[in-house]
Specification:
By secondary structure, the protein is α/β, with parallel strands linked by helices. It folds into two domains: about 90 residues, 3-Layer(aba) Sandwich (Rossmann fold), CATH 3.40.50.720; about 45 residues, no CATH class. Helix content is about 35%, strand content about 20%. It is built from three helices and seven strands, in the order E-H-E-E-E-H-E-E-E-H. Strands 3-2-1-4-5 form a five-stranded parallel beta sheet, sandwiched between helices. The chain is globular and about 50 Å long. The N and C termini lie far apart (about 50 Å). The model has no long low-confidence stretch (mean pLDDT about 90).
């Protein structure tokens, strides 16, 4: 199944990232770049997060006011429970270990001010998405430098 590409304003929206590991950190950082009001919920926090952190076990009531949730724990049962709660409550959810339980996925994105380039393989080949993103970014950067030099020389 291919995912519909959609860009959403998440500035100041309540977003919860459940998990305190590397995947949770990467996803929280991506969400923060776009101005989301991110809270990490984890029993054990393994990284320094630049947002609110609640060191606690996941409970449904903690995410009841969410616009969006990322389930990135190392516990399959907890991730599934988060997905089920979000489905019942019409909350967008990304389940790090299950594309089928997710209502959205993260693309490989490059950000330059208000310009966002994002590539998706619908979760089937994240390495290819990152490779394509990097190639597009390199092309963009080369052309940006060339255009800036033309403007200076005009």
């Amino acid at each position: 199944m291919a995912y519909f590409p959609m860009f959403v304003n998440i500035e100041n929206k309540k977003v919860y990232v459940i998990g305190g590991g590397k995947v949770a950190k990467r996803k929280a950082d991506a969400l923060l770049r776009f101005g989301a009001d991110v809270t990490v919920i984890a029993k054990e926090v393994k990284y320094k997060f630049h947002c609110k952190v609640l060191e606690d076990a996941y409970r449904d009531e903690l995410i009841a006011d969410a616009f969006m949730v990322v389930a990135a724990t190392d516990d399959r049962d907890v991730n599934k429970k988060i997905s089920e709660f979000c489905a019942k409550n019409n909350i967008y959810v990304n389940v790090a270990d299950s594309r089928d339980e997710s209502t959205f996925i993260f693309g490989a994105s490059a950000v330059d001010g208000n310009r966002v380039i994002s590539v998706s393989t619908s979760g089937e080949d994240p390495a290819l998405a990152k490779k394509l993103r990097n190639e597009i970014r390199e092309h963009y950067d080369r052309n940006k430098d060339r255009n800036e030099k033309k403007q200076i020389g005009s």
